[in-house]
Description:
The chain has 104 residues and is of the alpha+beta class. The protein is 15% helix and 26% strand. Strands 1-2-5 form a three-stranded antiparallel β-sheet, with helices on one face. The radius of gyration is 14 Å and the shape is globular.
Amino acid sequence: MTRSKIILLGTVTGGLVLFYDYVPADDGRGFKRERKFPCTEFTLLRDKRDGLIVNVVCGGTALEPEGEAPHFSAADFESGRAPEDGQIISDRSYDQIRRELMKT
């Protein structure tokens, strides 16, 4: 069974960009919760052992999606073009990354 996932790009402190792969509130069984993420302010809680995101604490207003980009291909993963979940990207701006993703 494949779960729907949403890839999020968001600007964090200092103009850095967060790449986050998350499963939306609709669990496929008809139960929907109010969407709170992505939002204007949030805190990422990471596991100390492996650095994986274990929770996102929302503290701001929910943001509406800007668009939908195609899925990453196997070649994107092999070449390193596809970021890792929870990766903070510092070498490109949000706008640069968004343009790259929407071109694909």
